[in-house]
Amino acid sequence: MKPKVLITRRWPADVEARLTEHFDVTFNLEDRPLAPDAMKRAFRQHDAVFTAVTDRIDADVLSGDYIRARLIGNFGVGFNNIDVKAAAARGIAVTNTPDVLTDATADLALALILAVARRVGEGERHVREKAWTGWRPTHMLGRHVTGATLGVIGYGRIGQATARRAHHGFGMKIKVYSRSSVPADVLAENAAEQVAAVEDLLPLCDFVSLHCPATAENHHMIDAAMLKRMKSGGILINTGRGGLVNEADLAAALDAGEIAGAGLDVFDGEPAVPDFLVGRDDVVLLPHLGSATLETRNAMGFRVMKNAVAFFAGEKPLDRVA
């Protein structure tokens, strides 16, 4: 008998078709977030639940006398949406999908750097609104990216891939903050220099890109005090997690001219985006598109499937995190 699994959101069609070869799959045909009571039932009625990074799997969801599920397959590299200690206490394994979304997210980080620096969103709206009256020497002047300094906070796979594109593609100088010491050969790949503290890195950089996990320690790591340390013409990019940035402090820093702009793919309370950000021309806003290519989302789904097939065959999943 095939293991019974529930997928909390719709996945690409090719992945869903392959999943049915290995599992008895329950699909969320409405493709809307499950209510807490429905999520609780999922863990009582299925052998595995394949979650999205927006699903909150906390101790309450995993509470009760009976839990059938033995595996959570998280569709994403981050798993801070899951209380892994509570899962472990109930004998539930947790897997994620590293590696496969590195390039897509790094590509998007560079897209945001260019979009903010060259005022792409503002310019596109300008044309659509039929406000453009023609070329002139001082119209919508932006910032030069080539040769500028990029600060990368969090130098894992995605941070390194972003630095690689910036340095080798745009000749950018790379400054790095990482809690652990980065090996010399890894730094040398992008001619990067490791800086001891975030507050020391910020004044050195024209652009700052966030690629660290959303731990409790990192919550609102970019706040009013940190924003004041950035260059007055600095630009902040966040493709990591929304909780890394205090959005009210960001808006205040922009109002005060402490920084020049920001590019955000993630938000603290997404999908809600504060009105004080939506109305700004100096901020580029995207709807969490970091891994949103067909190739990447297919690869993520197949990675969840591969981990689950191994788990139910009694083997160790490649990407088990708990």
Radius of gyration: 21 Å
* End-to-end separation: 26 Å
Q: What structural class do you assign from the helix and strand content?
A: alpha/beta
Helix content: 25-40%
Number of strands: 12
Instruction: Detail the poorly predicted runs.
Output: none
State the order of secondary-structure elements, H for helix, E for strand.
EHEHEEHEHHEHEHEHEHEHEHEH
Overall body shape? globular
Task: Characterise the protein shown here.
The protein is α/β, with parallel strands linked by helices and about 325 residues long. About 35% of the residues lie in helices and about 15% in strands. It is built from 12 helices and 12 strands. The chain has helices spanning about 15-20, 35-45, 85-90, 100-115, 120-130, 155-170, 185-190, 200, 225-230, 245-255, 275-280, 295-310; strands at about 5, 25, 50, 70-75, 95, 150-155, 175, 190-195, 205-210, 235-240, 260-265, 285. A 7-stranded parallel beta sheet has the order 8-7-6-9-10-11-12. Strand 4, helix 3 and strand 5 form a beta-alpha-beta unit. The mean pLDDT is about 95.
Topology (elements, then pairings):
Blueprint: E1 4-7, H1 13-22, E2 24-27, H2 36-45, E3 48-52, E4 71-75, H3 84-89, E5 93-95, H4 102-117, H5 120-128, E6 149-153, H6 157-170, E7 173-177, H7 184-189, E8 192-194, H8 198-201, E9 207-210, H9 224-229, E10 235-238, H10 247-255, E11 261-264, H11 275-278, E12 283-285, H12 294-312
Summarize the structure.
Helices cover 35% and strands 15% of the residues.
Tags for this model:
single chain; 322 residues; alpha/beta; seven-stranded parallel β-sheet; 12 helices
